[in-house]
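Hey, I'm writing a tutorial for new members on how sequence and structure tokens pair up, and I'd like a real worked example in the thread rather than a made-up one. If someone can provide the structure for the chain below, I'll link this post from the tutorial.
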Amino acid sequence: MLVDCDALALPVACTVAFRFGERLDDPAEMARSDALVVPASLAGLPALAVPVGMAELGMGDRMPTALQLIGRPWQDELLLELAAVVEQAIPPLLPPHPRLGPGL
């Protein structure tokens, strides 16, 4: 359990974020979108997500992507410090395209 490292950096999801309201009619697909973030919670490990960019979907559409940081038990402060380093290294993100839905 994270013996040789302070934290793991993993994707938050297998795909980019989906459009607002896009998967409301498919609860199983909604649950699958959480598959990469659930294990840390089940293991009782601190974890957080840091926005790292915008994925181009074509025709000017873009959606946010994120990096998940998972740490050792009780190392929440270290994760926050790592997240701050990542945020400082990433240029400011452009907002999603307005056609992708309200509330984004």
